[in-house]
Specification:
The chain is an alpha+beta fold. Helices cover 68% and strands 13% of the residues.
Length: 345
């Protein structure tokens, strides 16, 4: 009897150890008709309540998208409460009205207002990201964000100023620093995410993007030769090339960021293509225009389905064991903090 029990335990351990690495695709299971009902009610009630219902609309919207996004046949959860969001928006609107009032009464104070906003921006950013992360959960385990004011100031204020001073030459570096800060300060349970993309990766993307703008602008101007004034050709060429460059930037940066994020031994990958992304985008724009905006819910679903279909989690071993270990770590951390601050029932 004892021997059988030992063998069973050994087999369970061996099974866990030998569990193959798995590629787990992201999947979105929502549909346009179902989401349209939520969307139209949100729009109507927000209008009727003069914006007050927008907090409830945000929660309903996010819960729908989170609960229909699956990895390993398990969906995400959105935990925020409407009143939490409403309080934040009331404060934000109040501050905005105060700023507008001050600027109207004394335009000379506008510069001071901008300075105050610049000082407050890192704190506001950290709080916003932290709120979003802690209200997102997967397998009943919440995400976290551990940003600091000093580091947020660098990526939100210092680096952009540097990019401006260098006429945009440092913009790829500034963007990379922002993405690295956002990823590296985020955690699932107690385990931090890691970002591994380099500045060279960003410069390659921006270099190709600029080349697209220059080449397509030249092609459009040449094709329209004799059909319109030079200024019109240049403007049309720039707008046409800028649109495709933005598609390229969106796809390339999404692939770069997602494919360079890891969580301990687990990693992620994204394989969006410019052609497929452009196809979804153009179809959505055409149908939204033809339906006078009523296709917006279906357009969001179509884009979400495409985006998630291109993303994967590369799980090294048992994902269940990893989550279980994280839950134990979170529980232990809570107990330690309780002892330090003497929290008792």
């Amino acid at each position: 009897m004892s021997l059988e029990t030992d063998n069973s335990g050994h087999n369970d351990h061996a099974s866990t150890q030998s569990q193959p690495n798995r590629i787990l695709p992201f999947e979105f299971r929502g549909n346009g008709g179902e989401y349209f009902k939520i969307w139209i009610v949100n729009v109507l009630l927000t209008l009727v309540t003069l914006g007050i219902y927008s907090a409830w609309a945000t929660v309903r919207n996010n819960r729908y998208f989170y609960s229909n996004t699956f990895v390993d046949d398990v969906s995400f959860d959105y935990l925020a409460k409407p009143l939490q969001i409403l309080k934040g928006r009331v404060i934000a609107v109040g501050l905005f009205l105060i700023i507008v009032g001050i600027a109207t009464i004394s335009p000379t104070l506008v510069a001071l207002i901008y300075l105050i906003f610049a000082v407050a921006a890192p704190y506001i950013y950290n709080q916003a990201v932290a709120f979003k992360m802690r209200n997102t959960a997967y397998r009943n385990l919440q995400f976290r964000f551990y940003g600091s004011y000093g580091e947020a100031f660098k990526v939100l204020i210092a680096w952009p100023i540097g990019a401006g001073i260098t006429a945009g030459l440092l913009y790829p570096v500034a963007l990379r620093e922002l993405h690295e800060y956002r990823v590296n300060k985020s955690a699932y349970g107690t385990t931090r995410f890691n970002f591994s993309a380099s500045a060279n990766d960003y410069y390659k993307i921006f270099g190709i993007g600029v080349a697209i703008i220059l080449c397509l602008s030249g092609i459009v101007v040449t094709l329209l030769s004799g059909l319109m004034a030079l200024q019109g050709k240049i403007l049309l060429g720039f707008l046409f090339s800028y649109f495709f460059a933005m598609l390229y930037f969106t796809v390339s940066l999404t692939n770069l960021i997602f494919s360079n994020v890891s969580l301990k031994e687990h990693s992620f990958s994204a394989k969006l293509t410019v052609i497929e992304y452009a196809k979804v985008m153009i179809i959505n724009l055409v149908l939204i225009t033809l339906t006078l905006g009523l296709y917006i819910p279906a357009a969001k679903i179509r884009m979400m389905k495409y985006m998630t279909s291109c993303m994967e989690l590369h799980a090294q071993g048992s994902l269940e064991d990893f989550v279980a270990a994280e839950k134990e770590s979170v529980s232990a951390l809570g107990e330690q903090l309780g002892e330090v601050f003497d929290f008792s029932a």
